[in-house]
Predict the structure.
Amino acid sequence: MSRLEPRKVAMTLAAPVIAIVFAALVTALVLAATGDPVWSTVTTVWDYGSKPRVIALTLNQATTYYLSALAVAIGFRMNLFNIGVDGQYRLAAFAAAVVGTSVSLPKPLHLLVIVLTAMLVGAMWAGVAAVLKVSRGVSEVISTIMLNAIATSLIAFLLSKVATDVAGSNNRGTDPIPESGHFPGIPLIPGSPLDSFGFIIVAVLAGIAYSVVLGRTRFGFDLRATGRSESAAVASGVSVKRMVLLSMLLSGAVAGLVGMPQLLGASYTYSIDFPAGLGFTGIAIALLGRNNAVGMALSAVLFAFLDASSVILDINDISKEIVLIMQGTIVLSVVVAYELVRRYSIAAEQRRVSRELASQGSPEREEVAT
Amino acid sequence: MSSARATTTTEQPPAKRRSSRLSLPVVLLGVAGALVLFSLVRVISGANDLTSSGTIGAALSLAVPIGMAGLGGLWAERAGVVNIGLEGMMILGTWGAGWAGYQYGPWTGVLVGVGMGAAGGLLHAIATVTFGVDHIVSGVAINILGLGVTQFLSVTAFEGVRGGGESQSPPIANIREVSLPGIGEPLLELERKHLFLLSDLAGILRGVTVGVSLLTVVAILLLIGSFYVLWRTPFGLRLRACGESPVAAESLGVNVYLMKYIAVIASGGFAGIGGAFLAIVAGNGYREGQTAGRGFIGLAAMIFGNWRPGGLAMGAGLFGYTDALQLRSGVESVHALLLLVGVALLLVAVWLASKQKLVSSAICAVLGAAFLVWYVRTDEVPGDFTTMTPYLATLLVLALASQRLRMPAADGLPYRRGQGG
């Protein structure tokens, strides 16, 4: 991209910082309004959040969030709104769980088959929306909302066909995946009794791949160009339909990974209480991180930290729903802040240019500037 | 979205006119045909619940929240603002209705529900109109916020109150139900005879005239009123102009921002009524997760109905009806529905073939035959398939008719005051 100017960096960082500060203010106001102590809440949350075990938990959750944000961001860069990440990862995780229990293979192969199944199913479910958009002009926003709901019913139906009682609870799910299909955890955080998901490595690799493919390859350039201006892309010989199809399939494939940390690192079964709604969190995180691989990673950690802190809030008798308010406010204020910063920087740029032109004192130039 | 727009703009004007303006006789003929088809299927399958007054009544009250959410979507999108946040505004409506309803009576509950929904709308308007944020992004954020705010408030407002809890409000007194006098008994008698066509008519009439909640009546009046305001008044023309071409509207002196604000706030208000209906009439108080995605279904109903009130009502009715069938007698009626869909698809195939649209006709014929085979070979339809019916139907309609659907030309596009130059 362009060289690093301090001005530019400040501008880029301004929006998320403003948003987070604003959200913190709103949250503090809500807390104060309901009569909860603001400052001691903050310190409690911080103390709790910096324990090794909680950091490990936060990282695990962030791994899942990050993959979800990546899936959404691929669509965003192309100006596609994949709201369907939610349905895609749930269907993918379910299919992967079924395949994982029904085949028996040696260790690395077994894992690979499970993960590939998930990516394939996620891509297929996203592909339905892509085909509808390309061939029939159906807005992907609406079709993916519908596909989310259809996925919910479909999973419920299929689960009722294959589910057995999960041992020791009244939960129902698929049979557990045998040991050869587990993704080994790694002791990443010193002092934590809890291993980190091994899948965090995959998430990091996915983030790097995302950065490289979008920023450094012909395909990535075509994708971003189509997202910025469809007509310009067409003029330079890019097939928009092909790009829509490809990016949606790619987004779906990454969405297929979202359920994997949980499935291969913790639960080993797809049951009724498999986490839902991660796709929507992914949208929020992609927005906050501005579709940037590093930005999204930081945002994912922030959201996961807020989630983890809800536990201690609950213990201290402060309603944990405050976390949802904070997350919602962050999303809304971050997009407003980005817009404001964008307008401000355009205005500042215009002022700068007109000032420089005025100082040059050439009459024709001045005419152009005004 | 952009390619949808591209396809609609390349369409020839005559075809568009024909599809969007059905004349009254054609509509009546269609209704009559559908009635005969329903009656026929009922007689053949013996699923008498298909057109019973109970089913129709239930369908009506299930359609109201969907229809109100759809109406909210209609107002916003006609003014050019896409409102994905309907779900969140609806959730705010259920909570407002629950909170005020148990303390000050159901009608106050409805008003507060509307107010809460409208507040959500105001937030959406500020974000999208004043700050020019992407409409869908703002909507998604409002959905998150709506859920968070209500869950948070519930804990402080309902916990420890008699009959309430952290995820539900105390029970609310119901809104009065009204019936057309002197018509219920004779219709019921006729309905019980299970005659071809006559009993079906009696069932449907009884369903919509006996034991109808006053809030349902209000909702129907709002639907008709919205049509009148949006399509028959200068105000409505200006509002719709903002959705079609804000720059043109501005050049004629319309305050586009104001119009958009009014439309989006009204949109939230309608979603709020839908939520209030769920809390007060359909349930007997606020419950967490009560809306269950109805805001999204409402949006689907509106698109299904081609951004028009009549079509929207039809879409909401369809979704309400499939819901009602499944909730009431599930297995048998829904199974009979397979026969209905199969026959209907075959009829459409014949109609398409007569129009020389052979490919579409063949697809319909194959699908219709598949449904008939499904009907003959099975005895019941799993409940999960019924829950996905409305969504599948919307997807199918979008896939088959998206070229004929026409959304407001500037729907979802950013607009800044004075950008026309």
